[in-house]
Automatic annotation (TrEMBL):
Keywords: DNA-binding, Phosphoprotein, Transcription, Transcription regulation, Two-component regulatory system. It comes from the Bacteria. Residues 2-121 form the Response regulatory domain. GO terms for cellular component: cytosol; protein-DNA complex. SMART domains: REC. The modification 4-aspartylphosphate is found at residue 54. The lineage of its organism: Bacteria, Pseudomonadati, Pseudomonadota, Alphaproteobacteria, Rhodobacterales. It comes from Roseovarius nanhaiticus. GO terms for biological process: regulation of DNA-templated transcription. Pfam families: Response_reg. This is Response regulator receiver domain-containing protein. One of its GO terms (molecular function) is phosphorelay response regulator activity. InterPro entries: CheY-like_superfamily, Sig_transdc_resp-reg_receiver, WalR-like.
Length: 335
């Protein structure tokens, strides 16, 4: 991972450089000002994978630099982590509005820094997967030849479906909620016979099935903007903010009806393979942001470990997670 650190304090930059250069697979370039950073960006033969930007700098501050980087075609989704000594919430709101991914407060803790860098690395990996998936989807949609060899564990970002997020973006959307209690319903949505369907169909049809299921979930969800992600093996995560008027079974029936209608319109017969299972993961309708994040992380980790059985998820004691940050716990081991 190639990181560009932009800070006009050489002492601070040297300290961060010393810490990061001890990490495997991390290379660091230093810039002493926003202008210097933009010159390095223009001259780089390969795009940077991540940016660390100090907010308070000279003529061009970190927020303006973040905004300019987002205008660059190569950096519209690259992780940008802001660094600040300020405690002002409006300042961070401006940074997020400019396109920042995350932020750190000075003085930096080495373990926290490693955790945030690990988070950025996960996001970089997800973005690369999305780019590869987008290219593969374009290839199969423009090809008349059947494509086989679909890996059911592949966590594809279905970029053609408006409203679906990569998992890490879904998590960050939850983390950006203000700390507190919310009406949130977290669902695991599964196509049980997805493996059978993917084996009997080409890659193009399998991808289209996932797109249709995604669209069916988004249409059926009792909210204008549900947070949803595909996490592999025919499994989706869906977080609905707001009061639920129906039951999980009502939600499931609505999804299945809408997807079947789309399949019928495409003249695709999945009558022997298509069914949707919907499981609500939280018993209480009002839960904290922390509890919601813990639920989605648990599901994502379960899917990533390729567990065939999915045990029921019971209520989470929210105080267990009150001081927990999974990115920091194993930061040293992972980097």
């Amino acid at each position: 991972m190639h990181i560009l650190l932009v800070d006009d304090d050489p002492t601070f930059s040297d300290v961060i450089a010393a810490r990061l250069e001890r990490r495997d697979h991390v290379s660091l370039t230093l810039a002493v000002s926003a202008e210097h950073a933009l010159q390095l960006v223009d001259a780089a033969s390969q795009p940077f994978d991540c940016f660390l930007l100090d907010i308070m700098m000279g003529d061009i501050d970190g927020i303006e630099l973040c905004h300019r980087l987002r205008q660059h075609s190569s950096y519209q989704t690259t992780p940008i982590i802001m660094i600040t000594a300020s405690q002002e919430t409006p300042l961070m709101e401006q940074a997020f509005h400019a396109g920042a991914t995350d932020f750190l407060r000075k003085p930096l803790d080495e373990v926290e820094l490693a955790g945030r860098i690990k988070s950025a690395m996960l996001l970089v990996d997800a973005l690369k997967r999305e780019k590869a998936g987008r290219a593969a989807l374009q290839s199969v949609l423009t090809s008349h030849d059947p494509v086989s060899g679909f890996d059911i564990s592949e966590r594809i970002c279905l970029s053609g479906v408006s409203g679906i997020l990569d998992y890490h973006e879904l998590e960050k959307s939850l983390l950006r909620l203000q700390d507190g209690l919310y009406h949130i319903s977290v669902f695991r949505i599964v196509v049980p016979a997805f493996q059978k369907a993917s084996c009997s169909r080409g890659r193009s049809e399998t991808l289209q099935l996932l797109r249709d299921v995604s669209q069916g979930i988004l249409t059926a969800a009792p909210a204008d903007t549900p947070f949803m992600s595909y996490i592999g093996r025919g499994r989706f995560l869906c977080c609905v903010l707001g009061r639920m008027t129906g039951t999980s079974e009502t939600f499931r029936t609505c999804i299945q009806d809408k997807v079947c209608s789309m399949l019928d319109a495409r003249s695709l017969d999945y009558s022997d393979a298509f069914e949707v299972a919907v499981h609500q993961l939280n018993d209480h309708r009002i839960i904290s942001r922390t509890a919601a994040v813990a639920l989605v992380r648990s599901e994502f980790e379960r899917a990533s470990l390729s567990l065939e059985s999915l045990p029921p998820v019971h209520d989470i004691e929210e105080n267990i997670f009150a001081e927990t940050d999974w990115l920091l716990c194993d930061a040293d081991a992972g980097l």
